[in-house]
């Protein structure tokens, strides 16, 4: 140990103690003093010595060598200011696992080694490091193909803001997987088997609880993320069974017999092979708590390898797993010149943190997501993030979920899902990054994808982002539900068929970009509001399609080069507005149902009737913004209507009772006066819970007043867990007696549902002016 000299000023200035420095070497001894010539053997011993030294900041120097940890190295608030620095990043290697020896043959191709604690689940892992590579898991039917199960889920996928599904799936719908005859081996070992289910942009990883051979059903030990068969996605594979050992380089953990089984590659000698099995999911951990965060820790020049992951579905972007390097409640901590590779879960995970940096580092060959950043104000700069998701194909390159994050000059490539995900932050900067070969497995993502607010995506280059098979596609720059007031500028997209996709966003400016496609191209503003598209250069050899062109309120100074080039190119600047939709040729169907509880809490159990979407404005254009839905049913006494208004998070909802000023909706229906005359009645409900009724002519005023006395209405603003408004819901019970009609099956009469949004002053309706309602069984 080396401690700096004390500096004492004769003028009675405060005593200053310089930092202590400790050394660690693979040839050291924890009984040593920790000096350069008498180093410790372990990082834990050096950490503990630093905690015992006088006030820091302190430094730990890690000398060249391999370090195998029996448990994670954990730093906490006591380690404020500590730096752990490797002599040479290429030669200082830290492993979160144990070398395996004692291999014996297991049949013609396989080798096995017994492992204590595996049978008892005291030691369980889902990654294996063989000669410096993440080895391939035993996969049924094989390492490249998938199977199709027989699960059925017919409800459509709704936007996130509308809750994804019209009703919540049952546990059975999330755990019971029927399969085709012959697809699953009859004697599958459920103690070993794990099933990966592919969804549109995500995946589930679940264990197997039981196997009913006669019914051809696997029952999972935990729920999948999506119902079986949702969105017609039925792909699956089975991991970690002996039947999945179909080619050299594969392995499985035989929990039933307490051993590891491996099939070596042709050039691998089991007498000299290096196999390292992980002992932990997290290797280096910097973890404080809300009241005592870790501050000013630096990790530098270290190579970190060999971690595992839990048996759980990995979440969006395969980011809901532990990181080999994990920071929690860390302030102003720096990860510098690290190499985090060959790890079974995440590479680097930062959560509930503030400030700091990840820079000049390599994160690659991970089982799941490369980097997850949940730190307000963190800078991620000049990193190489690559070849990710080797065990979890929903993996993103980098997922950022805080405010004020700066993602600058990184190279990200070979990613099964999105290269970058901006997960809900505001005032972020994504600048000068290169992203390519993303979206290689999953759908509905992009090179740079996000739910971002007031953020800038600038100066990036994305290339070679191609959709794979039927799905929701792949994009270059994609802002999704709830994004608003962002700028996408000065970027390049090459060999991407959909260079910019904006789904349920508002106020975004797309300007001065260059989009190049050797084939067709789609520029999309799906259900978006108040968009700007200006100063962009589009070069497209095929057909240019602009989806929801009307959402671009400003379209100017764009240059569009189109054509095959043989006879020159057409140069255009304007894409015409989308024409109004034709009137709908079907009525709203009111189906018989039981009376619901009128509490502005719409549930599928109470409303087992079809849903309609309010997707027309007063001129029959399809407006932008989150879709709002309604349902209509009836019994012998009442017509029942509910409305589910989805808006952007943090939207402004006016809860008064002034029509065309406050947020409200009206049910427009033709009633019948006592003298037989028809009258249009408007039953209005407001987000704040008020209700009123009016008639379209003075003759029906008395009838409207009587109707108002009989109507029951409940309205309530929908809010996030932190109180931000995101729409509202309403439920009506409208008595047929007050309408002067009876609900005869087959009867059809004029009808509409219209919604006023105070924030934009816009209307939404089932039909532009008037549709019809039909009573059906």
From TrEMBL:
Residues 1-19 form the signal peptide. Residues 325-470 form the Right handed beta helix domain. Residues 110-264 form the GH141-like insertion domain. Pfam families: Beta_helix, GH141_M. Keywords: Signal. PANTHER family: RIGHT HANDED BETA HELIX DOMAIN-CONTAINING PROTEIN, SECRETED PROTEIN-RELATED. This is Right handed beta helix domain-containing protein. It comes from Oligosphaera ethanolica.
């Amino acid at each position: 140990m080396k401690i700096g000299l004390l500096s004492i000023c004769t003028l009675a200035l405060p005593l200053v103690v310089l930092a202590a420095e400790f050394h660690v070497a693979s040839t050291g001894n924890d009984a040593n003093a920790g000096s350069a010539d008498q180093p410790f053997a372990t990082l834990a011993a050096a950490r503990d010595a630093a905690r015992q030294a006088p006030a820091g900041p302190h430094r730990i120097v890690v000398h060249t060598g391999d370090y195998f940890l029996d448990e994670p190295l954990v730093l906490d608030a006591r380690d404020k200011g500590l730096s752990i620095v490797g002599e040479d990043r290429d030669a200082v290697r830290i492993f979160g696992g144990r070398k395996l020896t004692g291999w014996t043959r297991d049949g013609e191709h396989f080798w096995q080694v017994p492992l204590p604690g595996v049978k008892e689940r005291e030691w369980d892992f889902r990654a294996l490091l063989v000669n410096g590579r993440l080895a391939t898991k035993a996969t049924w039917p094989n390492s490249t193909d998938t199977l199709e199960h027989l699960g059925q889920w017919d409800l459509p996928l709704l936007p996130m803001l509308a809750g994804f599904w019209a009703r919540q799936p049952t546990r059975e719908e999330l755990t019971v997987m029927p399969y085709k005859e012959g697809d699953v081996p009859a004697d599958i070992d459920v103690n070993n088997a794990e099933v990966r289910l592919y969804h549109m942009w995500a995946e589930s990883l679940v264990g197997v609880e039981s196997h009913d051979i006669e019914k051809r059903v696997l029952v999972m030990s935990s729920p999948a993320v999506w119902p079986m068969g949702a969105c017609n996605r039925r792909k699956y594979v089975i991991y970690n069974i002996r039947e999945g050992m179909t080619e050299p380089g594969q392995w499985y953990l035989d929990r039933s017999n307490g051993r590891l089984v491996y099939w070596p590659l042709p050039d691998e000698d089991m007498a000299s092979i290096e196999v390292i099995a992980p002992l932990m999911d997290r290797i280096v951990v910097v973890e404080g708590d809300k009241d005592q965060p870790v501050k000013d820790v630096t990790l530098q020049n270290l190579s970190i390898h060999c971690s595992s992951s839990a048996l759980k579905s990995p979440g969006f972007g395969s980011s809901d797993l532990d990181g080999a390097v994990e920071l929690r409640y860390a302030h102003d901590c720096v990860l510098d010149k690290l190499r985090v590779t060959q790890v079974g879960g995440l590479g680097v995970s930062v959560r509930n943190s503030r400030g700091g940096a990840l820079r000049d580092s390599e994160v690659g060959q991970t089982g799941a997501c490369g980097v997850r950043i949940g730190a307000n104000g963190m800078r991620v700069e000049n990193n190489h993030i690559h070849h990710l998701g080797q065990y979890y194909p929903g993996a993103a390159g980098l997922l950022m979920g805080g405010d004020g994050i700066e993602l600058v000059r990184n190279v990200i490539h070979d990613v099964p899902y999105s290269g970058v995900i901006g997960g809900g932050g505001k005032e972020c900067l994504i600048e000068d990054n290169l992203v390519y070969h993303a979206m290689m497995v999953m759908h509905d993502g992009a090179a740079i994808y996000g739910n971002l607010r007031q953020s800038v995506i600038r100066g990036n280059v994305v290339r070679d982002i191609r959709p794979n098979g039927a799905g929701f596609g792949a994009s270059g720059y994609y802002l999704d539900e709830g994004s608003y007031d962002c700028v996408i500028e000065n970027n390049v997209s090459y060999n991407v068929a959909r260079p910019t996709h904006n789904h349920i966003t508002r106020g975004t400016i797309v300007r001065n970009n260059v989009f190049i496609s050797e084939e067709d191209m789609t520029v999309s503003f799906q259900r978006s509001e108040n968009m700007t598209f200006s100063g962009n250069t589009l070069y497209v050899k095929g057909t240019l399609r602009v989806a929801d062109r009307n959402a671009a309120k400003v379209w100017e100074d764009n240059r569009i080069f189109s054509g095959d080039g043989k006879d020159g190119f057409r140069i255009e600047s304007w894409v015409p507005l989308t024409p109004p939709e034709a009137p709908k040729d079907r009525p709203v169907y009111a189906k018989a149902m039981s009376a619901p509880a009128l509490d502005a809490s719409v549930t599928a159990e109470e409303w087992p009737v079809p849903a309609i979407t309010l997707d027309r404005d007063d001129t029959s254009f399809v407006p932008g913004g989150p879709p709002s839905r309604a349902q209509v049913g009836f019994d012998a006494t009442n017509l029942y209507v509910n409305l589910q208004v989805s808006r952007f998070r943090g939207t402004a909802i006016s809860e008064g009772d002034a029509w065309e000023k406050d947020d409200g909706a009206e049910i427009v229906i033709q009633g019948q006066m006592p003298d037989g005359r028809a009258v249009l009645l408007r039953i209005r409900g407001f987000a704040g819970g008020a209700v009123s009724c009016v008639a379209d002519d003075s003759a029906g005023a008395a009838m409207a007043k009587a109707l108002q006395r009989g109507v029951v209405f409940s309205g309530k603003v929908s809010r996030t867990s932190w109180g931000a408004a995101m729409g509202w819901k309403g439920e009506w019970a409208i008595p047929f007696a007050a309408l002067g009609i009876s609900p005869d099956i087959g009867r059809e009469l004029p009808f509409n549902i219209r919604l006023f949004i105070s924030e934009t002053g816009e209307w939404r309706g089932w039909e532009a002016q008037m549709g019809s309602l039909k009573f059906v069984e």
